[in-house]
Every structure is written in structure tokens, then in C-alpha cells.
Amino acid sequence: MTPATQQKIELMQIRTVNDLNAEIARVKARTIMQQEVLKLKLKELPKEVAKAAAVAIIPGFLAARISRKGFGVASGLFGWLFRKGEKKSEAKEKMLKHAKQVGIFTGLGFMFNQLRKKFLS
Fold first, then answer.
1. Main-chain phi, psi angles of 87, to 5 degrees
2. 70-103: pLDDT as tens digits
3. How far is Cα 59 from Cα 65, in angstroms, rounded to an integer?
4. How far is Cα 48 from Cα 56, in angstroms, rounded to an integer?
5. What CA–CA distances, in Å, run from 89 to 45, 72, 75, 83, 104?
6. Structural contact between residues 57 and 110, judged by C-beta atoms closer than 8 angstroms
């Protein structure tokens, strides 16, 4: 039965003013209960927004950092392979620095995904 049909059946049971008053009281009580539920959900809204923002923003930020640093590793590698002398050691340092940062951001991404699975899902 749909809610509209249920409501018709309930309203068909109203035969007197007392029945009408009782139905009005039931509707008011149901409305007050729904308002309380909405108030509780409204209090939880900022927490849910923070969760959604974290899930949407942090992975993108980490992915951008990883790709940027990965490009730094690649350019450092090419510089190390094709340069000579003192510039070769600079390229090697640059490559190692970027590789270390890629590892850090990859680890942060992994930890975030684990926390998201445990707490946010």
C-alpha cells in the first residue's frame, strides 16, 4: 500500500470530532519527532562535510604531488645519465631528493587510504 492509500484509510476512520482531534495530535507528534531527527542530523552535518572534503581533496593533492615529484625523478635521471662532471652529481642529488619525496607522498597516500577504509567507510 502506498502512503497516500494508507492516509486515505486512516482518514476514513475519522467519524467524529474526537477522532479528528486524535488524528491531529498524532500528526503533530509525528511532525515533532521528525523535527527532532532533522535537528540531530543537522548537528552531524559539519562532521560529514569534513569527511567528504577530506576524501575528495587529500587524494587529489597527494596524486598531484606524486606526479610532480615523479617528473622530478625522471628529469634528474636523464640529467644524471647525460651530463658530465659536477653537474652529474647535482642531477643525482636532485633525483634522489625527488625520489625520497615520492616515497613520502606515496606512503602518506597509502596511510590515508587505510584510515579512510577503517574510519570513513
1. -65, -25
2. 887 887 777 777 777 767 777 778 788 888 888 8
3. 10
4. 12
5. 53, 15, 13, 9, 23
6. no
Set of cell numbers at residue 78 = 636523464
pTM over 0.85: no
SS3 letters across the chain:
CCHHHHHHHHHHCCCCHHHHHHHHHHHHHHHHHHHHHHHHHHHHHHHHHHHHHHHHHHHHHHHHHHHHHHHHHHHHHHHHHHCCCHHHHHHHHHHHHHHHHHHHHHHHHHHHHHHHHHHHC
Cβ-Cβ contacts under 8 Å for 106 (sequence gap 6 or more): 66
Digit-coded pLDDT (tens) for 14-37: 788 888 898 899 999 999 999 999
Encoded amino acid at 103, one letter:
G
